[in-house]
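Model: Ready when you are.
Researcher: Fold this.
Model:
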Amino acid sequence: MGQYKKLWYLLMAVLAVTFAILGYFGNEVYKQAPPIPEQYVTTDGKVVLTREDILQGQSAWQSTGGMQLGSIWGHGAYQAPDWTADWLHREAEAWLDISAQQQFGQPFAALDDTQQTVLKAQLAKEYRGNQQNEQETVVLSNARAAAIAQTGQYYQALYGNDPALKKSRESFAMKDNTLPDATARERLTNFFFWTAWAASTERPGSEATYTNNWPHEPLVNNHPTTENIMWSVASVVFLIAGIGFLVWGWAFLRKEDEAEAKAPQQDPISQLALTSSQKGLAKYAFLVVALFVAQVFLGGFTAHYTVEGQQFYGFDVSQYFPYALVRTWHIQTALFWIATAFLAAGLFLAPIINGGKDPKGQKLGVDLLFWALVIVVVGSFTGNYFALAHQLPAHLNFWFGHQGYEFIDLGRFWQILKWVGILFWLGLMLRGTVGAFKQPGDKNLLALFVASVMAVGLFYGSGLFYGERTNLSVMEYWRWWVVHLWVEGFFEVFATAALAFIFVSLGLVSKRLGTAAALASASLFMVGGVPGTFHHLYFSGTTTPIMAVGASFSALEVVPLIVLGYEAWEHWRLQYRTDWMQKLKWPLYCFVAVAFWNMLGAGVFGFMINPPISLYYIQGLNTTAVHAHAALFGVYGFLAIGFVLLIMRYLRPDALFDDKLMKTGFWALNIGLVLMIVTSLLPIGIFQAHASISQGLWYARSEGFMQQDFLQTLRWVRTIGDVVFIIGAVAIAWQVCRLVFKCQRQ
């Protein structure tokens, strides 16, 4: 540890405290998850549905693509409704009509204001008080049982082939016969009902529902809780305090700037002979850009479904490639190509760390890992296709087809195989790096790098801690361990350590400075990033303490992002340190873009939706897509591209980047991403937010609202940004392919 002892102690303390918080309140998630009652019965004892009906409905929902077609509790796709909010509103309206006929002999709309007010009060009292009793049974009024049956008929028709709902299916980008089996459709409605029951029933001993009064639904008195507003204010206070302490710490605690390391006359990495395992990474680069191009075209395809629903410029393709499928492929392809680039970066660095040598058999391992990645991609995508075409037996869907959970859509078998591949990569990395500990000199940066590699390898396995029938709240806890903690946490630390190693190896940054910066950055990322996982769970069947922890620490996630402008400037000016750095100009540009989009996409757009009061109204709206696109591609996408360009620079040392091609690619990607956001996603999200705040989430996601001509025009306008972005992706891919296949000019 030596001179870095304080930084190591700080990092270990941060990890110990934050994971203790994550684990302690994770236990709270398990204990306080909304119950799945043994049965729902009417007042005269007739069974309406059972726990088994709900669990079978959960499996039926997964078989339709789950979160890739509409959303549940706000998590999922944005084109179709949020089924929880939609069911709750439809069922409440049905109850009002049924009760109006029973009590006044007229439809609800025909009643006077006093009569309507009386019925609304009865509705809210009944729905919010429908807790289960000691026998794990919920007793429903006959009016509510009738409302459930009536609402269920609508969804059974919608997910089927009812001609009367053809236009609605087009508006929601649903194919006809989304769920062909009538029994499965009936089960699906049971699951939708349960999610709405949890969102409208008060948790025992509380005045808030199991989902903290989410979604906004005035008919059942779902409004923000007092705690929601208090912790929202607190999150802003924590953000300002965090920024203030960071500025003071930067000003008073940092040592005087170390004199810049003298740049070597020649590129040190280029002086090392390429090992056989490094030479084998060209195919990884090709796989990365191939998947990247596929992903952006799938993205354009998916976005077009939001305007034509079942068609692609007049061609009805939804029966073969429905929205849920292409959106699944779009997201999964992004995760695959970004992860592949990160794995390649690690494998490229390992021999450099090991003194320019490969362990025995390393090249074979690199080749085997590549083909394992190809098998997982092809296998999981094939499973997705047959699952959503309902050509896979229902009992095999979760394992080999589609899990139904956004970002972890691939079947469980393919998920396990993917983790095995990551563990295999971890083994290759350890074989190639642990030997370096025997070499003389400072090993602190190496220790951080190896620790981050181990975390990346091991923590993906957290996605295996839930099953097909796991309670939705518990599943969400573990899903966000992968989507937030693994991706946004440990990959961030891995990237930080990897970049530090690269710049130290190039002789442009001293090892002392690079090590100190990497250790400090790791602590800053983890202090907010680990418990900040809970900001995804405010309304997923959790209690107020979860909201408090998530709101407090997610605000701190933004704090380190404010200094990224300085990091960007540092990366930018490296190209001018020495003549040979000009050959690395474009990877450096990508790293500059990472810093910019980290600040804007993860920082500004992330905090825009993070405070509980904000997320209460806009969870599941296009504002979330703004953050997702800007952060996932802007940060991890550009970082992955930068890694690939860096690798290819050394695999083809005599080749030069084509400046015209690279300018086109780099700027088209940035401009295209900006256009997507400012001309379409953000304006639509803002209009939806107004609708959600004024009337309810159901309305902001409804067919009547989303199909307005103005919003349709905004979705068409997005095509401009999509096309610009696709041009950039193709240009970058063409540059990489020219290097891979040695077509680049010397």
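Researcher: Now this one.
Model:
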Amino acid sequence: MSESRIAIPSKAESTDRNERQYQVGVVKRYGLFFGVVILTVVAILLQTWWLALLSGILVVVGIYDLLQSKHSVLYNYPIAGHIRYFLESYRPEIRQYFIENDKEEVPFSRQQRALVYQRAKNVSDTNAFGTLDDLYAKDKEWFLQSQTSQPLDVQDFRITVGNERCLQPYSMSVFNISAMSFGSLSGRAIMALNQGAKMGGFAHDTGEGAISPYHRKYGGDLIWQLGTGYFGCRDENGNFDPELFAQNATDDQVKMIEIKLSQGAKPGKGGVLPAEKITKEIALTRRIPMAEDCISPSTHSAFNTPRELVHFWQQLRELSGGKPVGIKLCIGQPWQFMAIVKAMIEEDNYPDFIVVDGAEGGTGAAPVEFMDSFGMPLIDGFLFVHNTLVGSNIRDKIKIGVSGKIVSAFDIAKMLALGADWCNSARGFMFAVGCIQSRSCHTNTCPTGVATQDPYREKALDVPSKSDRVASFHKNTLKSLANFVGAVGLSHPYELHPYHVARRMSDGSIKLLSRCFYFIDEGALLNMNARSDIYNQMWVMADPDSFKADNEAYVAYNDDSRDSRKATPPTHSEFPTDI
């Protein structure tokens, strides 16, 4: 029986093959450069001077690439390397226009953006030939229509924000512009948003960048957000200035005050406005110096404990003349929010509203690690806040708004069904004023003039036409919301409940959202008998006089729980497992 043998190349054959590979590599690396050199020589001989000039410039570029040492790609691929960098700079646009499908979300799908554009332009938002969704896919959700469905002729749905301590309650739409600062957005974008809000009768959140002249020009309703930098009401050291605050807060255009504890784009990290985006107007509006990055602290200096936060919002309520005051946050450590709730109860002083921001992010630029790995997603964060207020028996005292990747009537209807009182949208309204999702908000090179302080780029944004689009997007979205509510057989979105929405599970079964999420019993936290024990544990850890966890109470609770479990036989879970 013959043995198979592997042919081992000789040393000479290996050397020849390596030489050929090296020669091919040289052609690949320097072929374009050599070609341009030859083209330059030929152009000179033929006296084609325009071609000689063009190719000569490329030769100079190639020589520079060979002499520099900072970019290995350019050294190994003179001239050709620049093509690579050029195409890479347009990668998001190339992917968005030519590669991604209509349903691919990065972070908003082409279909989602098209829906906003169509509603903003008052053109038909209907499609033909069936849905593009896989209706049998995991996590697919849909509303359950009713045999008693009815058309609703409603132009707007509104709520009133303000508890018993509020002297100037505010009637607001259930769909409003979320926080986006002047500085992050251009002056023209701010004007278009505010004029659109004025035309449509809804609210415009200023973001933490203070109230600019562009917010004031058209007189649209404002929610003034106070971040950790206290822009617009800060002293020379960056601390809160009560007198400056009162001057702005008592303005009739300001309808509510929002204390920002954290935001979804970068929870746990203060905002950053790069120095190249800081103009003289921004510096005057925020009361900050120019020529250096504007960095918001990660925490507030006006208060250090949950109880002091309660005192702070009461101070703002009084300084503003009794206007609604609330907080905005992206949920992080759960016991810290519960500590705020405990402080509310002990002080018998409640914010008029809470806005829950999801970790889905927004216009704020942030390190990738923060965007990907910090903060609680919107639905989880909202349900935690909602359950905590219900479990502590104070849900009726506080309205809850939500923000985070909300652009359609379905998004709004779903959040209202889960228990939210209103919804905010940032990027949805950015699309309405012309944003194309180039994702260059932090570079000052926004191609549509929305998120830039470059006066030449900003000129591309026409305020009158974009304001119409903002108002139209709001109007048509609420019209669609009315259709949703009517199709379910109801007359108002507040009648929506989690059992009106179904979800397909990973095993193919169908559950109502009322069975997919945990909803706490009213007052359960006060009696420490929440069916989900994690709520009991977090409640024990919450200290109204500190944002730190009360570990001793946590250990004692767990010891007591173990003793209780030993003495009590296990019971069937109260959580439903099917539709």
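Researcher: Key takeaway?
Model: The CA atoms of residues 270 and 297 lie 5 Å apart.
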